[in-house]
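ok trying this again, last paste got cut off
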Amino acid sequence: MIYFLNDYCSGAHPAVMDALVRNNLTLQPGYGLDEFTIEACQLIREKAKTPNAQVHIVAGGTQANALVISSFLKPFESVISCHTGHINVHETGAIEGTGHKVSVRTGENGKLTVEMIESVVAEHTDEHMVRPAMVYISQTTEVGTIYTKEEVMAIREVCDKHGLILYIDGARLASAIAACPEFGYEELGKLAHVFTIGGTKNGALYGEAIVIVDERLQEDFRYYTKHRGALLAKGFVAGIQIGELMKDELYLEIGKHEHRMAEIIAKEAEKANWEFAYPPESNQLFFLMTPEFSEILRENFACSVVEKRQDYDVVRIVTHWASTEEDVEQLLDFINNNRQ
């Protein structure tokens, strides 16, 4: 079956796998003190133009989110998120498990706005309530939309106004930059206090880089990482992968490929009168379908129902680094033969 189920359904990009095999017998110290991790972290600092940033590589996205949020918040502080935010929906209470409330607002198309942040801040009155201290946004969002540079600038401004930490989850950052090149590494380095660069969904077997730009947040982060069980003994295995993705713009090339495949699908789907559940802006596409039509699609292609809206299924189709033009052509044939 052809897979459009998610962007982590395949192994490593060939260049990443080659790097792992090539360096398999190169002996290294553990816990991220190896030459590969050091090089990967330096490449990230150079791309983001953040020479004083700390970079730490962990295994997965939920782990990164729980680590960042629990490390930077006091026990009585909360993190603000859109209702669709990964930390609110798809992390099984991981954030709450560290003792922190997720202060949620319902946003349009998966986005948090300045007004939503202001409303959370305005609700706080005294020590009988959790105090909001961080803003969490995802780039891309969980519903495939993209924050523009201007939107994030406005969010950073309100964060500075209220002394909030801005944390940008970049699990799908490659696809986001492909869709919005003017908001790349350098802009992230200027606007976020801390952000992640996701490898798991962008060509690595696993690995997420946490980039701590604000020097006030950097103290003792390796202690926090170990305390949360996130300090990898074989850190060099993740370091090799992230480093390879950062070389020669491979990471961005993967994002461009994912985005191009999704654009082709979206254009044909629109011609065939398929209805979008959310604006098609990245490698995640969401369609409104009758349950009957949804079932026919899923009998032919691996994709998923992620939401129910009255009598309709919201079906997600995701392109990834291993999506081929042949895969897309077969889906296009299905689209053209099954107009809604």
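PB: full thing came through this time. The CA atoms of residues 307 and 314 lie 5 Å apart.
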